[in-house]
Amino acid sequence: MKKILLGLIISGIFIGFILYKIDFVAEFHKISANISYDYIVLIIFSQLMGLIIFSYRWRSLLESKILFKHAISSTFIGYAANMILPARGGDLFRVFYCRNETSVAYFNLLSKLFIEKVIDFIFVVVMGMASFFIINFIKGDHSNLSVYIISSSILFGMLFSLYLLRFQNELIKKILSKLFSYLKKEEFYKNHIESHITDLESFLKFKKFIRLLILTAGSWIFYFTNYYLIGKTLGLDISFVECVFFLFCGAMSLALPSAPSGVGVFHGAIISGFLVLKKDSAMGLIYATALHMSSFFIVTFTGLIFYLYWTYRRRHGFKKNKQQELN
Predict the structure, then answer these.
(1) Where in the sequence is the domain holding 118, given as residue range(s)?
(2) Average pLDDT of 102-110?
(3) Torsion angle, CA of 265/269/272/274, rounded to 10 degrees?
(4) Contact assessment for residue 152 and residue 160, using Cβ atoms and an 8 Å cutoff
(5) Which pLDDT tens digit goes with each residue over 160-193?
(6) pTM
């Protein structure tokens, strides 16, 4: 309850500050004549394709212990739930769905969910840094040296951590075991952390890592495209590389507690990206609003359809034996 309240307060602060600083209605009227609806179908397609590839990656993480139709259904329902539930509750609902449709234990599902978030975080950070470097290189602006130093340090730290997890896994487990033993939390370590460390080592094996990386890239390319198409719809002068940077900003906003679907915090992150690239912050608010609304309606609507079908199947006894479905 405290986390939910904190998220609502933070979102409220962001919304209040944005509305105080920017006249949204006036700015929207300025660009209303340039709005084109020619890209609507492509926007819907890119949003849905990103989630479909994401679903296939989720099935790969579960080592095909779930049918593809259930992977898709759980993903769409989970993402829709994230739009209306606080604290990324949709991710936990996805775990609940998969537990009901497979024989995979809750803890293993949570472990795979953790790995999924690690993959996405690494990919988004690397793409965000790369896009920022390219944008400034094209502009000939090398004044943001501190940003490059910080970004490079973060990237080095991430790569070094992955190296340790892959090749020094037993050493890490020994160190953590002693640390939690000193803190008198041995049971917590054994039950909630140790298996995650082991799973990460398995995931980082070359074949698995490359496969998941390709699927991750495919999914995010569609998300990048979605950002670009929405910019074109609004008639904004935004390059594809800049869209990658804005998606990075939006993704990083998820690290902050906020109201459901990141309202307020997401908008603030996108506006910050516009300011960093020395673009009009008012246009950033309109862009962020369009991104948020399109994602909300597309994902929530499709997720609702999957949820209604899932509940219909369960209520009418269409749930088959899990093992028979997989064979």
Answers:
(1) 37-326
(2) 85
(3) -130
(4) no
(5) 888 888 899 899 999 999 999 998 888 888 887 8
(6) 0.86
